[in-house]
Each structure stands twice: as structure tokens, then as C-alpha cells.
């Protein structure tokens, strides 16, 4: 009897594990929903300055001349990016990383976040905005991922 029950339980656990395995596409739907929720909180938490510096350049803009036009860069807040199912190193795993476009914006976010230079009160208050955004976004990310997970599981049970 005990042997039969043990085999039954092993078989049952194996079947539950198999039903819980997600394809990379399903995982991408879930992590993509979480990434969308986090990117919105990160956008709202990323500091934005409209300060005009001595040389006439405004924060977030490189006013270098190229011909007759000015090259204008985005504010850090507007460079937040993610691609559902891809990590930062562009590996297709189903996981989704949220970050900033390109090395320049990653560098800029680290400067704002690390406190290694002379900082005004405003800069000090903005320090570690990324960490603050992660903490603030936990609930909304979990809710978004849970909703997507339920949709994936319902879709799979309909098959």
C-alpha cells in the first residue's frame, strides 16, 4: 500500500511540474507584463531637470551642431526600454530586462545614482532613484505578472 501511494504521489508531483513548465513565449508574456509595469514606475521615478547650464545647454540635451541642425538627445526618463522575452545581452530566454537605451544612458543613470560627484540637494534627493523605483514597483509588477500568468494558464487549459 505504501509503495503504491508513494508511486502515486511521485507520478502526481511529476504531472504537476510538467503542467507548470512555461514555454519561453508564455514566460515572455508574463515577464513582459511585469516589465511594462516596472518601466512606468521607473519613468515616473527618474529625475528630470529643466535646468539651463552656463553654456546654454539644457539638461538632457546635447546641443552640438551638425550642419544647420542641433543633435538633440533624449532625457534619461525617455530612454527607458525593454523588449519582452529578451535579457540585456539580447538573449531570448523569456525573461525581460528593463534598462536604458545604449551605453550613454546607462552611464548617465549611474552618475545620477552613485553620488560620486559634488551633489546639489536636488541631486542628492534623486540619488538611487532606480532602487526606489524597484521598491515602489514590486506590488504593481506582481499584479501584472499574476494577471498575465492566469491568462497564460487559462489559455493553456483551453487547449
Characterize the structure shown:
The chain is mainly alpha-helical. It is built from 5 helices and 4 strands, in the order ααββββααα. It has helices at 2-20, 24-45, 102-114, 121-126, 129-158; strands at residues 65-66, 69-70, 80-82, 98-100. The strands form 2 sheets. It has a two-stranded antiparallel ribbon with strand order 1-2. α2 runs antiparallel to α5 (129-158). It is elongated. The model is unreliable at 62-69 (pLDDT under 50).
Q: What is the end-to-end distance?
A: 35 Å
Strand content: 5-15%
* Average pLDDT for all residues: 77
**Which class of secondary structure composition applies to the elements?**
mainly alpha
State the total count of DSSP E strands: 4
Q: Low-confidence spans: pLDDT under 50, at least 5 residues?
A: 62-69
Helix/strand order, N-terminal first: HHEEEEHHH
Helix content: 55-70%
**How large is the count of helical segments?**
5
Coarse morphology = elongated
Largest sheet: 2 strands, antiparallel
Salient structural properties:
5 helices, single chain
Which helices and strands occur, and which strands form pairs?
Elements: H1 2-20, H2 24-45, E1 65-66, E2 69-70, E3 80-82, E4 98-100, H3 102-114, H4 121-126, H5 129-158
Helix pairs in contact: 2-5
Short description:
This protein is 57% helix and 6% strand. It has helices at residues 2-20, 24-45, 102-114, 121-126, 129-158; strands at 65-66, 69-70, 80-82, 98-100.
